[in-house]
């Protein structure tokens, strides 16, 4: 069936950073989906002027607006629209403010979908980093009650919001969609459908992934080792290589050992990671001048995706009896950085007289 002949679906993208805007535009571009976007801070600007998108996939797009723009998820839930696909592209910070956790973000639209049509399928698509991120959703929403399909999106892209309503995409958009539970046949079919809807030939790539958990572990090689290290030391990747003792201690003392530990944890979950990926990631990032997302977050006083990138794999390692000295050192040091950020944001309070956290 051609895209033009398919029934139009409603999709909402929650999270209008560089990744979310490109995700929404890719869905919009094919003409199959009615696309809604939750924009929050840019709402007034986007309503008046739309988005300026400088994209390696689509060229320069001026004054683009999705079909519907909402300032909050609560506004979207009040629009009396059933969203077939709820796509989350926000940062995943379960240890952050309670109203910004994934389940809190999802709650209004999942519940409004249920009220509008409890028998219709709701696809929740987490286009986010990390491992085991679906567990938070399952802990708060009974799949059968809400008729949920849980889909995973693993995205490779370089896209940044550089100003209000202004996004620059320098790296091509490549997304793998799959079911978190690869034995869930309904979710598998929905993932295949979304991949077809998302893919725009000659522009981006949307593909079905029959083992998306393995793909998440593969991406974790980079995120758990390189992303975290740059956040800890406040350096771009190239300087992490060049500033090292004999220009090799960062790679062989931190990056590669951390990656090998991730591979060992994955193996304890019966997931084989190709050792060539360790070589690939080190060589790929060595000569690219950029700061990974966690480093940028720390520099801008934002909380990091610490728990889903390091906390979750380390907890799996402990449960499976896998030793992770490098990852644990990175994690324990970054907990201090995370709590420093939380104190700055007044999320926690330290009493300098008692030298204790105020509970």
TrEMBL record:
Entry keyword annotation includes Aminoacyl-tRNA synthetase: no
Residue ranges annotated for the Ketopantoate reductase N-terminal domain, each copy included: 13-181
Keywords: Membrane, Transmembrane, Transmembrane helix
Name of this protein: WGS project CCBQ000000000 data, contig 00015
Ligase listed as a keyword: no
Stretches assigned to the Ketopantoate reductase C-terminal domain: 211-336
Highest taxon of source: Eukaryota
Native species: Kluyveromyces dobzhanskii CBS 2104
GO cellular component: cytoplasm
Spans traversing the lipid bilayer: 9-28
């Amino acid at each position: 069936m051609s895209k033009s002949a398919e029934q139009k679906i409603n999709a909402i993208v929650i999270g209008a950073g560089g990744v979310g805007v490109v995700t929404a535009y890719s869905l919009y571009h094919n003409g199959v989906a009615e696309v809604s976007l939750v924009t929050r801070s840019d709402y007034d600007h986007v309503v008046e002027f739309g988005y300026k998108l400088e994209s390696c996939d689509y060229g320069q797009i001026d004054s683009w607006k999705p079909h519907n723009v909402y300032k909050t998820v609560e506004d979207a839930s009040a629009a009396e629209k059933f969203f077939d696909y709820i796509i989350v592209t926000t940062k995943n910070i379960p240890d952050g403010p309670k109203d910004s956790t994934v389940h809190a973000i999802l709650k209004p639209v999942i519940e409004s979908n249920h009220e509008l049509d409890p028998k219709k399928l709701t696809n929740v698509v987490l286009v986010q980093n990390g491992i085991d991120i679906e567990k938070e959703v399952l802990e708060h929403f009974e799949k059968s009650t809400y008729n949920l399909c849980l889909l995973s999106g693993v995205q490779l892209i370089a896209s940044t919001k550089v100003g209000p309503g202004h996004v620059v995409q320098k790296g091509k958009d490549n997304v793998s969609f799959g079911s978190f539970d690869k034995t869930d046949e309904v979710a598998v079919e929905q993932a295949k459908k979304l991949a077809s809807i998302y893919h725009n030939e000659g522009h981006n790539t949307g593909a079905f992934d029959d083992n998306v958990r393995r793909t998440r572990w593969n991406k974790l090689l980079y995120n758990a080792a390189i992303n975290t290290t740059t956040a800890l030391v406040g350096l771009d990747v190239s300087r992490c290589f060049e500033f090292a003792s004999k220009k090799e201690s960062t790679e062989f003392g931190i990056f590669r050992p951390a990656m090998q530990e991730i591979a060992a944890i994955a193996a304890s979950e019966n997931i084989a990671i190709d050792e060539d990926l360790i070589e690939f990631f080190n060589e790929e990032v060595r000569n690219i001048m950029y700061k990974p997302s966690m480093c940028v977050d720390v520099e801008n006083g934002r909380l990091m995706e610490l728990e889903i990138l390091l906390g979750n794999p380390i907890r799996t390692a402990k449960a499976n009896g896998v030793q992770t000295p490098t990852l644990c050192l990175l994690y324990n040091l970054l907990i201090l950085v995370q709590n420093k950020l939380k104190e700055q944001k007044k999320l926690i309070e330290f009493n300098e007289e008692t030298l204790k956290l105020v509970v």
